[in-house]
Amino acid sequence: MSLLTRQKPRRRSGASAVDPPRGGARRDRALFWFTVPGLAVVLLFHYVPLLGHVIAFQDYQPFIGIWHSPWVGFANFSVLFNGEEKLVIALVNTLQLLLIQVVFVFPAPILLALALNSLLGERLKRVVQNVLYLPHFLSWVVVVAIFQQMLSDGGLVNVFLRAQELGTFNIIGNPELFKALLTSQVIWKDTGWGTILFLAALSRVDTNLYEAAAADGAGRWRQTWHVTLPALRGLVILLLILRLGDALSVGFEQIILQQQSGVGIQAGEVLDTYVYNNGLVAGQWGESAAIGLVKGIVGVALVLGANRVAHLFGEEGIYRR
Q1: 3-55 per-position pLDDT tens digit
Q2: Which end of the chain is more exposed for a tag (fewer CB within 10 A), N or C?
Q3: Residue 125: which residues within 8 A CB-CB, separation 6 or more?
Q4: How many helices (H) and strands (E) in the chain?
């Protein structure tokens, strides 16, 4: 035999020539254990409390508990149909704030992301992003206090206007401007943080598409319309569907902190604050739980319906068909 004859590789005893890869479950076992604390928190604070909705069907009394409170069936749900004035006011205010936030608050991160993406200097872009992200980390207590110190009758703005012998204006405590105040607070606090997802989506757009569009004579606006916005369409639809799931919740903490500023129930009551005031404060536990349960069911129905509409238009939505 020739000395150049290639020898066959030896196989290890008890093993194949090519060992199969380890299974995904075994390989990622350590990562699965890291998810256990997070899953436990979600189950304990988000899913276990759902069992408490049983009080919507009881004449619940805290001092006797769930197990001994009398069962009343759907009697508590009659509050939804008897036309109670405060509930109607809360529902109307909630729907008005929902419409305002969809029109003004939801597009704000998109517009800001487009503006930041157009900045040429990366250092300038990072500085601007960090400045705009900061308000998100402030609690609503701090945000409301800042606005009150600035815009109240004795706030910095009116003090300055009085010093200049100019006319003052009343924003804090003005029922007619309360919804505009809420909207401006949400935009100031959360718009910068909301740009993160849109900037990430914009970073994935192929620059060759812009070059091809420019070669075809497309200007800046046409590049944005035909390249940038189509790249954001799927994300926009996904976030809009998720927003519909929380449609009837328009900022409980933000509003409850400002209800005592003089705006009154006519302008400052929404469904979440009605549930709080009618349930925890007034002691109508069953009726408030019934309203909260219906609100949650409506949110789920809106998400499923909007996702179905997204499928009809060829989008994935929150899950695939």
Answers
A1: 444 455 555 544 444 454 555 667 778 888 888 999 999 999 988 988 888 99
A2: N
A3: 116, 119
A4: 16, 0
**CA proximity to 223, closest of 118, 112, 76, 95:** 118
What is the residue whose two structure tokens read 């704000």? 108
Tokens describing residue 312:
């009809």
Read off the pLDDT of residues 107-131 as tens digits, 9 standing for 90 and up: 999 998 888 887 767 788 788 888 8
CA dist 242 and 187 (Å) reads 18
CB 213 within 8 A of CB 222: yes
Report the distance separating Cα 83 and Cα 85, nearest Å: 6
Q: How far apart are CA 22 and CA 24, in angstroms?
A: 7
Query: What mean pLDDT, rounded, does the chain reach?
Result: 83
Look at residues 293, 266, 238, 317 and name the one whose alpha carbon lies nearest to residue 79: 293
In whole angstroms, give the CA distance from residue 318 to residue 316.
6
H-type alpha helices, 167-228:
178-203, 207-215, 220-223
Q: What are the structure tokens assigned to 307, written together?
A: 């996702």
What's the pLDDT band for 1 if we cut at 50, 70, 90? very low
* Closest to 55 (Cα-Cα) out of 301, 272, 229, 275: 275
* Rounded distance between C-alpha atoms, residue 1 and residue 67, angstroms: 90
Q: Residue 66: name the closest of 74, 58, 76, 78 by CA.
A: 58
